Amino acid sequence: MDVLVSGLKRGLRGEITIPADKSISHRSVMFASLAKGKSRISNFLYASDCRSTVGLFKNLGVDIEFIDEHNLIVTSSGMLTPPNNNLDCGNSGTTMRLVSGILAGQNFNSVLVGDESLSKRPMKRIITPLSQMGAVIDSNDGRAPLKIQGSKLHAIEYNSPIASAQVKSSILLAGMNADGVTTVIEPYVSRNHSELMLKYMGANISVDKNKVSIEKSELIAKDIVVAGDISSAAFFIVAALIVPDSDIIIRNVGLNETRTGIIDVVQRMGGNLEILDERIVSGEKVGDIRVRYSDLKGCNVSGADVPRLIDELPVIALLATQADGETRITDAGDLRNKEADRITAVVTEFRKIGIDIDELSDGFVIGGKQTINGGSEVEVYHDHRLAMTLYVAGLIAKNEIKVNEFQWVNISLPEFLSLMETLIIL
Ligand code: S3P
Predict the structure, then answer these.
(1) CA–CA distance from 130 to each of 93, 170, 192 (Å)?
(2) How far is Cα of residue 355 from the mean position of the Cα atoms in its chain?
(3) pTM of the full structure
(4) Given this model, what pLDDT does residue 345 score?
(5) How many helices (DSSP H) and strands (DSSP E) are in the chain?
(6) What pLDDT sits at residue 320?
(7) What digits encode the pLDDT tens for the residues 137-157?
């Protein structure tokens, strides 16, 4: 599905409720599948990635019943059963990496496969630590398919070379099945949804800044309400900041501090963003966000900022094109390992629509405020976040932009276009 988008004549106005968080939705199904009993999950993200996780756990013998698209009941004996066929992770890196940690310590063998994009993504980052724990994983030179031979695991202390919640979570999930205390130390704190939910479900887990430890644990089934996804909200936040005369409210946004890097950056840039009605939902902070069109100034993004906004960097690069002065984004080399190489993809496609941007090995430099000419076709490289970033660029372009293969948004936010339409006043 190709989509045409042209510059808006008026600002974005109105309110939307942002759909559920992808990371939390995945974890809700995974952890409920490991817990003995019945867990009710509310406000689940019904998008392709999370549906891959559901399909996979059904294949491992877990009873997952959808009441409707966003509400489901997971009933488990607490034990997984050997799958009948290969386990398909689709496009989802979170599914493949976290599930590897779960399967490494089972008493059966399994094979994890993924789509074309996922089959190119690096898996050594989990194979290395899991192998140190005694896992036996055969891969295609560090890539999927992953053939996992269920093995007896032992604890390790792992100094992760990267701040990655997928790596951390994979090791912690393996650690729940291992003898001893498993510890992961990260260079910077990455998203902590696994830690919060595992604790909520009774795991023996402790956290001390960037060091997390877990011991053998049995999870207790619990009801989980999934918070809204700040990574999805990011596209609407940026749209309101850059389309003149916008003033919108985004409701139910997850505000976990390991995810709110974009809010800090917007405030650093002088953006008009207010948080209203902060509250806690299933152990996660949630609030409503009001955003208005703003005069922005460039800023630097690096180091500990990066894991707190890693998925928002393409749309933050777009935001920087509407800010006075230079924006430098560095220490983000892992963007090259996402659904696409997001550094090269952003630079290539931004240039096609007339944006002046420099490519660094680990980020971008955007010189300052500029007009986006548009008038061309752009590609999304099987990448949902690139598709949405390019659409938002189109909202301020002088000439129409055609975004090819826009259906990739279904990976994380099938409602993107309808939510955008509610904010666009014709
Ligand atoms: C995720 C962690 C991040 C993020 C991804 C989701 C998760 O990946 O980019 O979209 O749910 O744990 P890394 O752990 O590879 O940084």
Answers:
(1) 16, 8, 20
(2) 26
(3) 0.98
(4) 98
(5) 12, 27
(6) 98
(7) 999 999 999 999 999 999 999
Is the shortest distance between the CB of 165 and ligand 1 below 6 Å? yes
What is d(CA 281, CA 279) in angstroms, rounded to the nearest whole number? 7
Nearest to 207 by CA among 242, 181, 174, 183: 183
Do 3-20+227-423 and 22-225 fold alike per CATH? yes
d(CA 406, CA 349): 14
* Domain 3-20+227-423 CATH class label: alpha beta
The answer to whether 91 touches 48, Cβ cutoff 8 Å, is yes
311 catalytic residue (yes or no):
yes
Domain assignments of the chain as residue spans, ordered by start: 3-20+227-423, 22-225
The closest residue, in CA terms, to atom 9 on ligand 1 is: 311
The CATH number of 22-225 is: 3.65.10.10
Q: Whose CA is nearest to atom 10 of ligand 1?
A: 311
| Mean pLDDT within 311-340 | 98
- Are 177 and 198 in contact, with CB atoms under 8 Å apart? no
Ligand 1, closest atom to CA 231? 10
Distance CA 229, CA 94 (A): 15
Query: Hey, what amino acid is at 20?
Result: A
Q: Which residues contact 157 (CB under 8 A, 6 or more apart)?
A: 182, 183, 185
315 residue type, one letter: V
CA dist 38 and 284 (Å) reads 21
Q: What is the pLDDT of residues 246-278, one digit of tens each?
A: 999 999 999 999 999 999 999 999 999 999 999
Rounded to the nearest whole angstrom, what is the distance from the C-alpha of residue 115 to the centroid of ligand 1?
17
